Amino acid sequence: MSERIEVDVAIAGGGTAALAAAVALKRAGLSVAVIEKRVCGAGASGVNFGGVRRQGRELVELPLANRSRLLWEGLNEFLGEDVEFDVSGHIKLARSDADMAELERYAEAARAYGLDLTLLGANAVHAELPWLGEKVVGASLSPTDGQANPRVVGPAFARLARRVGVIVREHTTVVSATTTGHGFEIEASGGLTVTSRYLINASGAGSNLLAEAFGEPVPLTPLTPNMLVTEPLPYFVSRSIGVCGGDVYVRQIRRGNVIFGGGKGWFDADHTFARPVSEQSIDGMIRTLQLVPGLAEARVIRTWSGVDGQMPDHIPVIGSSSTTPGLFHAFGFSGHGFQLGPVIGIILSELVLDGRTESPIEPFSITRFVGDAGEAPRFAGVTGESAEPPAHVEH
Ligand SMILES: Cc1cc2nc3c(=O)[nH]c(=O)nc-3n(C[C@H](O)[C@H](O)[C@H](O)COP(=O)(O)OP(=O)(O)OC[C@H]3O[C@@H](n4cnc5c(N)ncnc54)[C@H](O)[C@@H]3O)c2cc1C
Predict the structure, then answer these.
(1) Ligand 1 centre from 273 Cα, in Å?
(2) Which pLDDT tens digit goes with each residue over 124-134?
């Protein structure tokens, strides 16, 4: 059975940024359709670590992250649901003097972007977090960063989108798109054709489909961080914790479960699903988790992974297409797009409505990769085979 939908804006992908854009555009009076391959929030937006952090970001991302942080403050009210946003602060630990020097340099540079970090010596860190392992020599604290529950955020945005009248089509895959005299014609699974004036490409790790369709292939690769959650434990991890190098990150939710991550998983051929590395490796990771010796005996009750799109320079593609008027991209968040999701939606809506945004998005232009896609690293991308995307995850 075939079906045709005509809207002002079609959005490929149902992640947080896509849905936030859909809500803003619908409220501005445009008709909007979101087309999602699985269910909204099933991608990276719904399965991530939950870090709502500005500390440690590339400096060019900070203006966007600062603006997003303001949105997080009012997100419960905006969504009409509790997304468990907790301003726990984010503390980044140094395990060597070289790490500490790096934290000092970052704190100095970040101040110019309005991010105030507090540097702590070894004694101060251990006084605040006495359960930390011996290896910590200092830290940098961002008191206004925090954490939230991604399993709530993604679906909550989808529920709001539906409430305000966005057409949300789940289990529907965008398979191709072309330009017409008036905009776009998008073919999706199930015989669905969507015609639209504007098209937003926010398909996460699958975004190259539309980028390529409009002559802008990019070196987008899948990133699959490992996540673990323990049984509920007495509350003790009062901050969201990362380390220099980004190889371990830990937070504890109010119910007591400790969530932590490190390493990376495997992904399937079309980068839809990922699963964590072998049980043995996870056990090994737990045993070697010298940072939090108190977790050594904790029972892991679940492990998972997810797939984000990663760019070679670890910053996303955000903005107008360089080839096709009316097409906008937002993908490649390289393992740290959860915090940015709400503001990316606003930025996309500004681009559609006004042709410009107040946020400085020039560094994220897709044009920085023109001609680069052919040099993209190649991965096996088959379940069971070892996939080795470049590691750059920091939560
Ligand atoms: C395990 C993990 C931990 C992370 N931890 C953090 C963290 O602590 N803090 C942080 O800031 N960031 C974190 N991130 C990164 C963050 O989750 C992502 O950067 C962000 O969610 C990306 O959002 P997105 O909308 O681009 O992609 P997604 O949320 O993946 O959304 C893209 C959607 O597009 C759909 N799609 C793909 N192809 C098609 C198609 N052809 N047709 C229709 N739909 C399609 C997918 O099904 C998916 O739902 C983490 C990521 C992972 C995987």
Answers:
(1) 11
(2) 999 999 999 86
